[in-house]
Amino acid sequence: MKTKDTTVFLEVKNLVIHYETDNGVVEAVNNISFKMNRGETLSLVGETGAGKTTTALGLLNLVPNPPGRIIAGEILLNGENLLKMSPHQMQKIRGSKITMIFQDPMTSLNPIETVGDQISEVIKLHNKVSRAEAAQMACDMLEKVGIPAERYGDYPHQFSGGMKQRVVIAIALACDPELLISDEPTSALDVTIQAQVLDTMRHLKQELKTSMLMITHDLGVVAETSDNVAVMYAGEIVEYGALRQVFKDTRHPYTQALFDSLPDINKNVERLIPIKGLTPDPSSLPNYCSFYDRCTKRMEECRKTDPAVLDVGDGHLVKCLLFASERSSHE
Amino acid sequence: MSKFLEVKNLKKYYETNRGTLHAVDGVSFSLEKGETLGVVGESGCGKSTLGQTVLHLRKPTEGEIYFNGEDISNPTKKKRHDLCQHMQIIFQDPFSSLNPRMTVKQIISEPLKIFNAVKNKGELEERVAKLMETVGLAKRFVNTYPHELDGGRRQRIGIARALALEPSFIVCDEPVSALDVSIQAQVLNLMQDLQEQLNLTYIFITHDLSVVKHISNNIMVMYLGVVVEHTSSQSLFAAPLHPYTKALLSAIPHSDIDMPRERILLRGEISSPIEPPPGCRFAKRCNYATEKCFTEDPVMEEIYPGHEVACHNVKEINAIP
């Protein structure tokens, strides 16, 4: 078993991803940077079109090209830039060092191959093992995610949604990856099943010491799974920090507005406070703060510049001019 | 005085190759005018089928439905058609419930034309404009097609269409689950405002418990075609009595990181609604199941005033004398 160290193993620097379409350039990911420590769970939160999934696909160098293109940036995995690797080298990383679980378990499994074969396929591809050894490892993996090994020979359609997602998790973790990217892993599942699957993921993460990048729009899921949180809006990280910093000491007006617009099961609120307006069109983003049009705390200066990312204390990063003065007083 | 809507022992069965599927299996409830009844449950529990059967979008297999005191369990074709003026539905998916080849105006005016609710073109335009204003759709969208609009605006078209004939009763089938949270809040607020202005009665079907708590007066929890608990929104969340409701509420991930979490993890998954065995539908996954639960169907019993539960062991589980 790996020893748990807290060194940075993944670093994303100034990543920019665009989709070049006939109707203009869609600026999906705009200059985002973050670091992940070994064993950490980082959540990327945001609404539809915030660039969460594109960021994840970028990490795997899987952005569909064309129309997608990684314009700039670096993705350093243990100091090596993934964006400089040959397709062959990248192939070796995908599935062994970095793996991904997609939202919909119904479409991410091959319907005409048994689930056991689908797991052992990954194992054989990345390890020098015999067919029998791979099958044995696949059986172990099934047991780990809570499926009896006897079901090795069953096909995906014989499983329910929650069980299928467990199979997908087994495939993703079969080669003991360093980083597991989960794109809305439980959004298609019912709450009681979601609770079971999240519980399994939590246990496995602890057992295997895997780091996880969790992509979700559900702030409840974030609260239950993450160490750190990055809130995305219009392709940018607008707030980043430890779970407690972002949830209890919320700074960015967008993050605050997200919390306010959510019906809370523990509170009685007569009316919700929606965020007025819509997310900006990613093919014509403003050159000032992209949340300006919907912000309740906007100021005159917000229209003039694109705010810089500021540290408001202990690594709590906010991309908002409201805190510019606060920081200068700190200095 | 008669109830606004009364449903008695409603059943909807489907014949399949593997036997009879009990989608809705003996559901009874009543609604007051202006009330919102939330129906919650997980996929396959029959909540959408219930909503559609009440509206006669699906023919009930058995049971009685009374609307404003009138028996509508077995309407004639004409009666069924006329009922549309009084009861309407808003569907979950604003992407597939609007005809992609019709403009916003055509979609909203269709019910008005079918029921000859307007005399001339001028009046039709006026009504459409009024409806768009009511649901907060800007006038400039009148000639656009649904695909040109975002999810929130599309759902507003669905709401405007449902309101066109000035119904008194609307079944809302997961109206906000396809929307982002910030848009979801806009639509929920709109629905609350409309209810107040137009004195609407809602059946609000959803799997999202925080949404249902926010919008409903009373809540029914369904499991595999039957209602297991029915009470006011407040008492359901303050003190759930049925073991399934307890597990369901404990499973919701909530965003307050300082709230203590006591999660009840359920064993297994929802069983098949085809030819269900006798006894409590939930018994196989229940932590408190006794022998009786596997042989005898529990019936709805009023434990506290207005708080009904269908569970053999409800008193033991909750230490009620």
Task: Give an overview of the whole structure.
Chain A is α/β, with parallel strands linked by helices. Chain A has ten helices and twelve strands. In chain A, α4 packs across α5 and α5 (161-173) packs parallel to α6. The termini of chain A are far apart. With 321 residues, chain B is an alpha/beta fold. Chain B has ten helices and twelve strands. In chain B, strands 6-7-8-3-9-10-12-11 form an eight-stranded mixed β-sheet, with helices on both faces. Chain B has a four-stranded antiparallel β-sheet with strand order 2-1-4-5. In chain B, β4 and β5 form a beta hairpin. The A-B interface holds A 47-48, 160-163, 190-196, 198-199, 217-224, 243-244, 247-248, 257-259, 261-266, 269, 271-276, 278 and B 42-43, 150-152, 180-186, 188-189, 192, 207, 209-211, 213-214, 237, 247-259, 261, 263, 265-266, 269-270.
Shape of chain B: globular
> How many strand segments of chain B?
12
- Assess the beta-strand content of chain B as a share of residues: 15-25%
Structural class of chain B: alpha/beta
Side by side, the strands of the main sheet of chain A go 6-7-8-3-9-10-12-11
Radius of gyration of chain B over all CA atoms, rounded: 21 Å
Helix amount of chain B, in percent?
A: 25-40%
Number of alpha- plus pi-helical segments of chain A = 10
- Rough outline of chain A: globular
Count of DSSP-assigned helices of chain B: 10
The class by helix and strand makeup of chain A works out as alpha/beta
Order of helices and strands of chain A: EEEHEEHEHHHEHEHEEHHEEH
The fraction of residues in strands of chain A falls at 15-25%
Radius of gyration of chain A: 21 Å
Low-confidence stretches of chain B: none
